[in-house]
## 1
Amino acid sequence: MIMEHSRIVRVQGDIIAVPATDIAYGELATVRSRRGVSLAQVIRLRGGEVFLQVFAGSRGVSTGDTVRFLGHPMQVAFGDALLGRIFNGSGEPIDKGPNLHALPRISIGGPSVNPVRRVIPRGFIETRVPMVDVFNPLVESQKLPIFAAAGEPYNELLARIGMRANADVVILGGIGLKHDEYLKFRIAFEQAGVLSRTIMFVHTASDPVVERLLVPDMALAVAEQFGVQGKRVLVLLTDMTSFADALKEIAISMDQVPSNLGYPGSLYSDLASRYEKAVDFDGAGSITILAVTSMPGDDVTHPVPDNTGYITEGQFYLRNGVIEPFGSLSRLKQLVIGKVTRADHGYIMNSMIRLFARSREVEQKLAMGFDKTPDDERYLKYGRLFYERFMDLNVDLGINDALDLGWKTLAECFRPDEVEIKQEFIDKHWPA
Amino acid sequence: MNGPTHGRIVAVNGPLVTCEVDEGREVLQNEVAYVEVGGVRLKSEVIRIRGRQIDLQVFESTTGLKVGDSAEFSGELLAATLGPGMLGMIYDGLQNPLGELENDQGFFLRRGQYLPSLDQKRLWDFEPMVQAGAQVRAGQYLGKVTEGIFPHPIMVPLVLLGTWEVKEIRSAGQYTVNDTVAILKSIDSQTQQEVNVTLKQEWPVKRPMRIYEERLLPDTQLLTQCRLIDIFFPLSEGGTACIPGPFGAGKTVLQQIISRYAETDIVIIVACGERAGEVVETIREFPLLEDPKTGKSLMDRTVIICNTSSMPVAAREASIYTGITLGEYYRQLGLKVLLLADSTSRWAQALRETSARMEEIPGEEAFPAYLESRIAAVYERAGKVRLNTGETGSLTLIGTVSPAGGNFEEPVTQNTLKVVGAFYGLSRARSDQRRYPAIDPLISWSLYIEQMQASLNTRHENWVDLVKKAHNTIFKGNEVRQMMLVVGEEGMGLDDLVVYLKSEIIDAVCLQQDSFDKVDQATSRERQISDFLLLMEMVDHPFVFESKEQAKAQMTHLQNLFFQLKYCPFEGDDYRRYRSEIESILNGKGVSHP
Ligand SMILES: Nc1ncnc2c1ncn2[C@@H]1O[C@H](COP(=O)(O)OP(=O)(O)OP(=O)(O)O)[C@@H](O)[C@H]1O
Ligand SMILES: [Mg+2]
């Protein structure tokens, strides 16, 4: 039943309150104001008062405006007809394509998958980026963000890795995305020839802040349906820090006591309920989530990257245009390393990282003006080679070639008894 | 009480729902209530009573609830069902069997679906152990059934107070968990109360089970097969430990490996607000792994309580209590129980979320003021006890902590450190260098060394002193390292450099343990002793080197031998070969440089 209510009795931040009865928690409404029509969602019921968050923001809302309750929670259209289409932050098509009224609609933000219906992921995704494949391999159904400060080429990296995933369906969720960046994604999809299996939900930087909240949920609800149908879906979300900032604004408008830097205490759960949509279904498809989490002040302990790191299955740490070996982590790597990839993979990976850590220490030591020992020379050489052959994002190399290059690099700099690798692998792989 | 109490919803704020009951109706704190939405009943718990206004935390999504909808109070506290058939189960935080839900619900967890925690149809072979006329008290064994790896005693219900007389006891035979196997009669002739005993019983999860003769000092080591823990920071049966660490430092992997290899009868894993994928690994892999002690699958000694991060927050709070209650129950059966909770910070955050919605006055970082006492109360439920039956049982609790920003100066870590007996602090520096497990030997501690001294020294006559010496070497090695950063290697004496190199060997081959290598992932007690004593020979060895370059080259060679050794199966040919090579170097025959 659709009900109209006027009398907005309270406006605070992007929250409004109206007196109304028989309204369900979570229900959707439209608010018609001088600036147009906006979606709004019930976020609190208190006696005869209903509180709503207004997705287009409350600017321009007046006490005389009309609120219309729609009798259902937020929904999004679903069907194969979505492929190739582009939507805005409230799920309206913005690509001048045919309307989608005939499609069934599905609720967003649905319940979580029964853990018992998940399987252990095993699909190695070869990205040909050695810092990913060798040191932190990406696994189908993984949830993984790129941590980066402003100005880093994170969207390029996201697009590059994303295109390699070879998914059946690619869904882009743009949250506070710059218009240029959106266009770049489109071009990348076009060039990779995947545009026809891509769906874009794009909230741009100039759109209302609260509207950001819907994007991940719409993208993931659609992904979930395709996943259940057996499709391998890749979801790209950028930038999740913008999403968290929208949560912060709502929390502040609701007078919630912030836990850290103004973010609500529920930030962890709010982010987790989105990222946990990544799944490998038992007997159906999968959802892989690659996201961008920009780091305000390049600070990984900032609440958004911090909470994200506790939720996701690792992170790629992009700094100075390269994926940092330290701080980057793929937690699913052990599921594929040495199982899907070559048996020596794990050993060479650990050894190379350990030695690279030492070469960094040597660099620091020399920077402080200490003498260079002959050993130092070798570590420096190793550090240089590591950067050129593995870290440089222009390197494009298959996993086996990269592993071979790893052995070659070790042998060029070290003796076998210095690399801490099991003898059987030394015997097998150490270049003569 | 006259009939169930009803209420009407007056406010909905996320999982916090306020309802109003009629004047004069009785409502219990922590009582279970159900709110109804679209024909589905959602379970909730009373968390605050203010006159007629009752606050409920609903264990499910409250979408769709309306003001005026009805609530029904059960008159019963939130309780766990205890009995045979829990082993191998995967429960949610409210003890719903997730594996059974699977059958009728497909991929997703639909709200409002509650199933009995124990198989209702399965028949158990019951054998009586007492005769009619016997006088019994709560926790005493009336009989037993056989459950997989062990005989499962059937106890006088733990909630019963005072002494009871066995009026009837059923003969040996097959019974379901709901069948009566005994009838008890109160010896208080006034009341003449009678109680039917079935194979299962209930216990309110938030109340500690204190039905034992006495609490014992935890003085026996609980072997985890993780060297860093067993050698440097040993844990005792009935002890408590916390594992704080920044994200990705290795808390979960450490708990997973402990859950596999710890020498204990029962393992309870509480996945509290963490990733579903991590539980899946356990669920899928445990059935395939063999418990060396019983020869059966590891799943047969394991119960999983799983309330992962996207499952409802209120049930996350309950999950820890459900886990502990199950643990206490098995302890009543005279068993050694290990409970692993990952992560207690998520539980604390659940408290915080609820507290914020109740608009309580927040404390530090918006956690409620009672955080400290709640944490203490949880860890206090662990312990080793002598039961009324004369047997001993223990419940050991290891909780991970996920401090914001990896900074241990935050309320959950600090309040936990006040109450636990061992602290395994993971450091970002060590995990970045892939020095796993990333337990930082410079900050971690165990208070159990003192009280377990006698038991530890059965490993070797002055084991505790040797460990101290090794630990000291690590401290000294670190000092040298710090100094080297200031004065450079050229400013260091040769002796200092050797101390540093020795400490690096201890680190590389003893502290570091590869969880993903079949051999290295678990080290038996026997091997721990043998390898550690060899390592200490190296530490004690008076090496004579001519130059720093020589020292580095030769110690690197030695380190590599130790390193190869640790990957060889114990007492195998390769093991012996590397060992004798190391021994010949330490016996003064000098380092043969390759
Ligand atoms: N003992 C170990 N041996 C080898 N690798 C390890 C070990 N411990 C951790 N790792 C590596 O570190 C990764 C992260 O570990 P883990 O998931 O246990 O971190 P965590 O501390 O639980 O993080 P979070 O707080 O985010 O849950 C693992 O996926 C694995 O790659
Ligand atoms: Mg973890």
## 2
Amino acid sequence: MKKKRNYLWILSVLSIVIFVGIWWICCDVLKLTSSSTLPGPVTIVRTFIEKLSSPAPDGATLPEHIFSSLQISLGGWIMGVVIGTPLGIFMAWYKKVDLFARPLFDLIRPVPGLAWIPLMILLFGIGLTPKIVTVFLSAFVPCVLNSYTGIRQTKDVHLWVGQTFGASDTQMLLYIAIPTALPMIMTGVRVALGAAWTCIVAAEMLASTKGLGYMIQQARGIYRPDIIICGMIAIGAIGAVFSGVLSLIENKIVKGVRRDG
Amino acid sequence: MDNKEVILHVDHMTKCFGDLKVLDDVSFDVHKGEFLCIVGPTGCGKTTFLNCITGLYDLTDGQILVNNEPVDTKKHNIAYIFQEYSTMSWLTVEQNVAFGLKMKKKSAGEIKEAVAEVLEMVGLTKYKDYYPVELSTSMLQRVVIARAFAVKPDILLMDEPYGQLDVELRFRLEDELLKIWEKLGTTVIFITHNIEEAVYLSENILVLTNKPTSIKQKLSNTLARPRSVVDPDFIEVRNKVTELIKWW
Ligand SMILES: Nc1ncnc2c1ncn2[C@@H]1O[C@H](COP(=O)(O)OP(=O)(O)OP(=O)(O)O)[C@@H](O)[C@H]1O
Ligand SMILES: [Mg+2]
């Protein structure tokens, strides 16, 4: 069992190693592309190290950009989770909440997060607020949907067990429906974080003075593909770390499911 | 029997699902401490029967009285073992067994003690920290039984609890059930389509008709315990019940 896992882990690393290897051979060894269109990994590493401390050419160092993006995306995401998840739960459990909130939610749901940006800029300018609200809206929707669906998956027989033991409505929600929904709720939280992260980078491309999206957009204007790629790698890496951390948390709090491997 | 206190009084119970009449004017009494088996054809409405008694379904007509009051699961101490598997996947064996007591807001100490006792009784003490996915079907069934017994119910309803189990385990669990019943004096209403099982367990047998279901006959089963399925007296009672049913 242990051996098999190590082996699988190597497989996952292998894909990245091969990808970087081919990239390196094409760009740095064979010099198939000019470094102003597609620089090789060596250039990227150099730019990356430089960008860690240098604010040139876009006005802020890479950590500053990352911090700015994180602040907004995490802020909006937390708001989305804190408001969206209970709303989904209550909509699924209490008919009246559903009737009240559903029409509004159904209108908001199909609007892509980014489509809010122009309105938000008009309303709040290009500071933090419009972006946090936009991120919030993108994160909010999957949280509502998943917790709603999760609660609806509660088995009748479990509710009946509760009922015959004399459980109150609140007890059945807390001890039966929410635990049933927990895996779905966690999925929603994870999807929401992905959505928040994607959304913030895109939002920064449209209107911003800082952030990874802004950095990429600026680099495009002055033909610095190395900075663009650095930015993209940072986005990808942070996104992967997010999803990894949330999976760990999920494994800790979702109990009693069959796990493979 | 008649001099004993009536715990459950079913009075003209009628249940329709839309146009489908499933239960038709069923009336009977169950006395305190009675072990009543209900037998009837597949799909005749046995599960509906129990769901109505526990108030999970609203009656179309008639009423159910427990200790002379309309049935109320918040007030009356009832446990119901469902035909479907009803362990909760997110709880350990121990937490599953504690579930009923927790809903009844018992103190932690009380819960711990009661749970330890019933786990021992069904032989699951060793497995108390396991989750349902890690258990076999028969162990899951024992978890459900333990959960029901943990609340020391006044009325225990069981809907074909051993239907899916192999014969050997069924025999063992039947004996376990009888032991618990004798020890706690619980009133048991046990549904089965297995006549032998009904004759083995019951004090009284309620034979149901086909849909729309009513009571064909209530007969008392006075065979001495422990019973043996090969005893001629046993076979006689079994044949009598079989004769009564003849739904095939
Ligand atoms: N919730 C419901 N809505 C509509 N019809 C129902 C419902 N529950 C049961 N029925 C119908 O009532 C009849 C009796 O069902 P029930 O499950 O009570 O039978 P049963 O005797 O328990 O069957 P089995 O031997 O398979 O356990 C069936 O015809 C079924 O279709
Ligand atoms: Mg049934």
